[in-house]
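Exam revision sheet. Question 4 asks you to relate a sequence to its structure. Input first:
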Amino acid sequence: MSDFYLFRNALKDLLLAKKLLTGGLIIILPSLIAIIGQHFLQAGRFTPEIAYNRLAEVLIFGITLILVAVVFFTGILSQEIEQKTIVYLLTRPIPRWRILLMKFLAAFLVTTVILWLSLLLLALVTYGPAHLAKPG
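Answer key, structure tokens:
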């Protein structure tokens, strides 16, 4: 069993429909809050720079990161235990730290992609697509 095989299987387990739906909802949540904030705040009080910085700090790095970490990092080994494949993995001549490292790297990759997508969607909502297309 190679490290790539372990990584691929961990990634496959993390990209199940339930977890993808949860990840999608987590990606959309900060942007929905930004849209609601734009409509309720006065036009003079809403500046894209301040809104993006505050929402990214509080919602994405404060709440979204924690939710994603809980959803994906706790599922690293729980899927193996539920499917009863943990015994098979542990009987292989692979050190346990390599098994955990590959599963951790897969969860880290999924978490990073979700955070980047969330930041990109928040930037599109706060600045608007026309503002982002302009250079400088």
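Marking note for examiners. The chain has one domain: 3-127.
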